[in-house]
Amino acid sequence: MTKIVSSLLRPASIAASSIAGPSRIISKRNFGLFPKSNENGHYDQASNPVVRDSLVPIVVEQTARGERSYDIYSRLLRERVIFLGPVNSQDSTLLTAQLLFLEAEDPTRPIKLYINSPGGVVTSGLAIYDTMQYIQPPVHTFCLGQAASMGSLLLAGGEKGHRYALRNSSVMIHQPSGGAQGQASDIALHAKEILRIRSTLTDIYAEHCTKQTETRENARERFEKALERDYFMTSEEAIDFGIVDKIVTRRSDGQLGEEEVTK
User: Fold this and answer.
1) Active site residue: 149, 152, 169, 235, which one?
2) What domains can you pick out in the chain, each with its CATH number?
3) Cβ(92)–Cβ(127) below 8 Å
4) Mean pLDDT per 10-residue section of the chain, whose length is 263 residues
5) Cα dihedral angle (113, 119, 122, 125), rounded to 10 degrees?
6) What are the two backbone dihedrals, phi and then psi, of residue 48, each rounded to the nearest 5 degrees?
7) Which residues in 32-110 belong to E strands, given as ranges?
8) What is the CB neighbour count within 10 angstroms for residue 256?
9) Is 117 noted as a catalytic residue in this protein?
10) Do 246 and 263 meet the contact criterion of CB atoms below 8 Å apart?
């Protein structure tokens, strides 16, 4: 039996044990070190990490050995379901650790990666991508909301035939951006590096999104042109572009990982 409660509504001793106890599998996501103030100088309590962490639901399971509690992300991790939001160094490290953990648990069962991401740091995203290719279990990717920038590359990098998008999700691809200052020679080095990264990203897109009717080189040229500006796609257009394989609307039998395909 499983029930979900908010840690705000539970006694402090129970909430504390659920956070620090042996049943905890992963750490909570980073919501910032300090509260952020708005333009009027007032603090938004939702950005306070203490407040944000307290809003993460706690799942309590009844077992033969008594109650066992998990935060919602740890409980879903047991079902091999993980999530990606903004791409940064801390969340990238957490996600790669989860991928490696799930491989150690079972190197054959698929991992389901749900992506709702505006993108983020390129190197952090490439760390996730390389880990997805490195581990043995296939990674099935799902786009809900949006998969923009590095989020779209990770969506495309999922197991071929198992890259899904929910109907009203959107995808956006573009070239990397950055800035440099200092001596002219240093700026030239940074410019050379960002051009190298753009070429690498183009190669990755072409590797995973080449259509049956085109060659790898044709796909690369197609992405080189599309990456020049922000290129937005609906879920249907993402299929035509080769980033997504199928659109799903609901599970076929209510079980995790079983989808009812509509296209």
Assistant:
1) 149
2) 1-71 (no CATH), 79-261 (3.90.226.10)
3) yes
4) 47 37 34 42 50 71 81 92 96 97 97 97 97 98 97 97 97 93 93 96 97 95 96 97 95 55 53
5) -10
6) -70, 125
7) 57-63, 66-71, 81-84
8) 11
9) no
10) yes
